[in-house]
Design brief:
The protein is an alpha/beta fold and 291 residues long. It is 40% helix and 14% strand. The chain has helices at residues 33-45, 66-77, 106-119, 139-151, 165-172, 190-193, 196-203, 216-219, 226-235, 239-250, 263-270, 279-288, and strands at 5-7, 14-16, 20-21, 50-52, 86-91, 125-130, 155-161, 177-183, 206-210. The strands form two sheets. It has a seven-stranded parallel β-sheet, with helices on one face. α1 (33-45) crosses α2 (66-77) and α9 crosses α10. The chain is globular, with a radius of gyration of 18 Å.
Length: 291
Amino acid sequence: MKLPTTTIGDTDLEVSVIGFGGMHLSIDGRPPRDQALSVVHRALDSGITFIDTADSYCLDEPDKHHNERLIREALEAYEGDRSGVVVATKGGLMRHEGGWPRNGDPDHLRRTIRESVEALGGKPIQLWQHHAPDPDVSIEASLAPVREAVDEGLIRHVGVSNYSVEEIERARNVIRVVSVQNQFSLWHRKPLEDGTLEYCDREGLTFLPWGPVGGRRRAKRVGEHDVLVEMAQARERSPHCIALAWLRAKSPVVLPIPGASRPESIADSAKAADVTLSQDEVKRLEHFIDA
């Protein structure tokens, strides 16, 4: 199966308009290994060619890089064509007692980038993203080892995550940035208010919404919204597809990366690629669903 494609920023990375976020395969409540591999394979079978992971998608620090290794294993075991698959990863968060503390220390980032390269198979990382700014370390200092890694050929392209517009601009003074990954959904519309989506749209940066269906708990209740159900039934699609289509309707630079822990879930999300909402429908969703 083939999905429509888009390009990451101004790069040569052409990927499906719906991606896959691997986090749920490696954190608390993660599925058995065989099921996790099946989820990745179903994503690929459904035409998804963009996979988002992170060094911190794991249970704790001793489990670091679990998701990256899992994605690598799934790709190596896949019997179909994986030549066009792009894997993006992130670094800059730790895992302690269920939390996600930030660590922008240059030595830590320098080390974890190399560990991510190894976990993903030894090839250059196609898109590496700084997971979040550390209030105790300047953005300039945190991104210095990232620039080194680009110069060394360990990283091809760089993105940022959980950054404000001012922080994105600071990052771009240090290194070429092609994408931004911030929280964004029908239920969390901050990027529409703080200018980050408008900035990405204007500057041609791909916007990767994390939590695109409102997060794990919210996703289980999407079917309780009559307006989503009505639009879904009219298209023979799921309410989740409508929520993803809403994101894509906000800007052509938006590339949703829904997660999944069951193969059928990611196969369903992929179907959002052929859903187009009118502006009236977009406004109706925003009116009836509280952010």
